[in-house]
Amino acid sequence: MSSITLRTALPSDRDAVIELIHQLNIFEADLVGDRRRDYGAAAEYYDELMQRLSRRNGRIILAQSDGIAVGAMGFSLDQDAAYVADTLRNHGTVTDLIVHNDWRGQGIGQMFLKEAERLTKEAGLKRLFIGVLVANERAERTYRAFGFEPYVSIMSKEV
To answer: Residue 65: which residues within 8 A CB-CB, separation 6 or more?
Structure first.
């Protein structure tokens, strides 16, 4: 396996990140059925994500092998509601974590999580959040193995 490097994504990485988002949408569509499978959905989401990250002191971290994008992670610094204790109110958030299908199981997700932890600590914060689809059992196992524990459960009902 080639060495993996992480770096902040640049505007010129847009197409590579959109391709990764598109792959994830297709993967998640098979899990939960509510994801759009068209490439346009990934491009639209990329634009939404960049707007959200720019408002929340965030960025996309890109994983590369020999100059090829093999993964992407959205990371931002966020703030909970006023009822959360001041020492924990501000936190890091992994907004998205995507590893190319061909590169899963090779430690890239762990690299991203370590980087998110480092960025959170660097900001002087003590808490890091990540979301996961209940149906994505492999991702949930990875996050739990990294030390994440359930905190909030969001429930859904079709009406």
So the answer is: 1, 2, 3, 4, 5, 103
